[in-house]
Each structure stands twice: as structure tokens, then as C-alpha cells.
Amino acid sequence: MIFDALSFTDCYAAISPAFQKAFAFLKNTDLGSLEIGRHDIDGDNAFALVSTYAPKPVGDAKWEAHRKYADIQVIVAGEEKQGFAPMSESTDSEGYIAERDIEFLRVKSAHYILLKPGLFAVYFPQDAHQPGVAACSENVRKIVVKVRV
Fold this sequence. Notes:
Layout: E1 2-5, H1 17-28, E2 37-40, E3 46-53, E4 63-65, E5 69-77, E6 80-86, E7 90-91, E8 96-97, E9 102-107, E10 111-115, E11 119-123, E12 127-134, E13 140-148
Antiparallel strand pairs: 1-11, 2-3, 3-13, 4-9, 5-11, 5-13, 6-10, 6-12, 7-9, 8-9
């Protein structure tokens, strides 16, 4: 898991060519002007999903993990809490859904960050995460860049 300011994305571009393209997209795009939906960066190797929604109370937000993709999560407007925990702390999987590359689960113990504009979080396949937790009453506009790992 990585949590940092968008101004430091160059530090992480060396992870892989797909991460380099993903971070270049985040750095060189007017993120606030992106339409809701999917935006290809490098085909299925890296793409951005833009959404707007009302965050949920912590008890209603689901824990998830992915096997094929890492998530780079960026808030464009609003703010939300996100839980994270190593997969070794997860229990009770609802099963992996291969076509969506997602597994919903529970965790034994977690840590939380406050994600707001100017910051980003990266969740790798070994990271269980709980996005969309309400930090305030306003809606969130978020970009999740999916990067094949």
C-alpha cells in the first residue's frame, strides 16, 4: 500500500511501465474535466474509472481485494476515509469474481487514511481495502486507475 501526495508520483513510476503510464496520465490530465466512465490509458494494462457517489458509513462500505490489478485511488472532489489491511488479516471471503477482478471479504483489524484532493493511495493485490467510507456529508468524485500487475 502506498499513500502519498500526487506531486510525488514520479517516485513510483519505476514500479512498472504500466505504472509509469498511469502516473503520467494522472499528472498530465485535467482530472476535474474527465467524464464519468472508463478512460483508456494503455488498453487493459492501465485504465481510469471515473465515478461520483455518496460515501457510506464505515459499517456499510465493503472490503475488497483484487488479483490482476492494483488500484491507484485519487479523489478529485470531496473526501473519504479508506481502510486498508494486509490480506493476511482478511477472513470470510465471499469468493473471487474473475470477470470483475474483485473479492469481497472481512478483515480482523484495519487502519484508516483520509483521502482528499492532492493525495493518492495505491492498493496492490496483497492489500485488502475499504474505499468509500464517509468522512463528511458531501459527495465524492473519484478516479480509480486500474494497473495490471
